[in-house]
Design goal:
By secondary structure, this protein is α/β, with parallel strands linked by helices. The chain has a single domain, classed as 3-Layer(aba) Sandwich (Rossmann fold). The chain is 37% helix and 13% strand. The chain is built from 10 helices and 6 strands; from the N terminus they run ββαβαβααααααββαα. Strands 2-1-3-4-5-6 form a 6-stranded parallel β-sheet, with helices on both faces. Helix 1 crosses helix 2. The longest helix is centred in the C-terminal third of the chain and has 15 residues. It is globular. The N and C termini lie close together (8 Å).
């Protein structure tokens, strides 16, 4: 038995992985928590990445080993922040289109540094009126009810705007080198949210990381092709944590 702890990105919650679990082999348990400030869960006393990492650590340590931490989008940033404090908490890491690099040069993080812009962006993503457009742009092939529920959940992401304050270039530059951590940087070749040419930037802090690009995948393969996503996760997990590991 082994575990995958999947950390969602900046909107919705752990439900973005719910279509994947049924397609994983029986010996792999997928745990997909919803972090404070997302999916309608109150942010409470959390006022930074440390609080999110504390919450994630409680979930991770409750799973069986060997365990692999999967971070998607901004979930990758939370995963990296946790591992910067305690790399021994997991046996492997998969960063799927993570957010963290080039935060001072990419136009989107720079624009989102303005609170009014962040509020407008969140309202736009969750707007029922604009869902047909967003489904075509980002969620093509996803069942309509699944896509609509996913987009609507952005309205309940209390921490959506705060993430653009908590993550900056200084945070990324301060990440320690993890010389012994088996890792994979995973990207879809058709990702329209985050450019795949960013994947090499993570080699500085993850020297053992292997880059994997998947043809045809966009940013949300866990929604539009859950069976293929599960198969890929199982294969990558086996590579990170060989079957010989108890």
């Amino acid at each position: 038995m082994r575990s995958i702890v999947a950390v969602h990105g900046n909107g919705g919650g752990g439900q973005r992985f719910e279509l994947v679990a049924d397609h994983l082999p029986e010996h792999i348990e997928l745990v997909a928590p919803t972090l404070p400030g997302f999916g309608g869960r109150p942010l409470g006393e959390v006022d930074g990445l440390d609080g999110l990492a504390d919450d994630l650590a409680a979930t991770v340590t409750a799973t069986v080993r060997p365990r692999v931490l999967l971070g998607h989008g901004i979930g990758g940033s939370v995963a990296l922040h946790l591992l910067a404090r305690d790399p021994s908490i997991v046996d492997g890491l998969i960063l799927h289109a993570p957010v963290g690099t080039r935060l001072d040069t990419r136009w989107f993080p720079r624009v989102m540094s303005r609170p009014r812009v962040r509020d407008a962006a969140q309202a736009t993503i969750s707007s029922p009126t604009l869902r047909p457009v967003l489904r075509r742009l980002l969620l093509r092939g996803v069942e309509r009810s699944v896509a609509d529920r996913f987009l609507a959940a952005y309205a309940d992401a209390e921490a959506f705007g705060a993430m653009f304050e908590w993550l900056d270039a200084a945070w990324f530059d301060a990440l320690p080198v993890q010389p012994d951590l088996p890792a994979i940087v995973l990207w879809g070749e058709r990702d329209r949210v985050l450019d795949a040419d960013q994947r090499g930037d993570y080699a500085r802090s993850l020297p053992l990381a292997r880059e994997v690009s998947v043809p045809g995948w966009g940013h949300f393969p866990m929604l539009d092709r859950p069976e293929a996503y599960a198969r890929t996760l199982a294969e990558l997990t086996r590579g990170l944590v060989p079957d010989t590991v108890p």
